[in-house]
Amino acid sequence: MHEALEYIHLTLDRIDNSYQRVNTGNLVIDALVSNTLNIAQVSGIQVKYKVNLQDVNLKIERYDLCVVLGNILDNAVEAAKISGQTGNKCIEIIIFSNKYTLFINVTNTMKDFTCSLYTKKQQPDLHGNGLTNIRKITERYDGNVSIEAINHRFNIMVTLQF
């Protein structure tokens, strides 16, 4: 009986962890941030996040939002994973909007004091376009990209006007 209860609790925990953790009503943001939280948990990365949308119906194409936010979050997770700061791997995600602008600010730990904006993945010809794509989409939405790397922390802030 005890083993059966343990199995049930374990199964319920797995189900809870597979569902979305963020629920703003914006499918793209909810899915990408929830996925990042799940990956970070498995990878031993601490995540602090705050998401506050004035209106969940952002006038930004879903594909464009996926490219921008997906690349930012993927890069943050990859950098934090290899940051070498055992027990201190972390990501901070802040996303909010007003009537006309979406603000995305992500900070993560990183290995090197200085950063290279070029991919370190195997087969670099198949990778390394993320920041270029972010910049192109940001320009399309009359936004800005700001990148800073200081004291083993990488910070990217993106604004998209709509």
From TrEMBL:
Any one Gene Ontology molecular-function term assigned to this protein's record: kinase activity
Lineage: superkingdom: Bacteria
Entries under InterPro entries matching the protein: HATPase_C_sf (IPR036890), NatK-like_C (IPR032834)
Keyword terms, alphabetized: Kinase, Transferase
Record protein name field: Sensor histidine kinase regulating citrate/malate metabolism
SUPFAM superfamilies to which the protein is assigned, alphabetical: ATPase domain of HSP90 chaperone/DNA topoisomerase II/histidine kinase
KW Kinase (keyword) present: yes
Sensor histidine kinase NatK-like C-terminal domain segment(s): 62-160
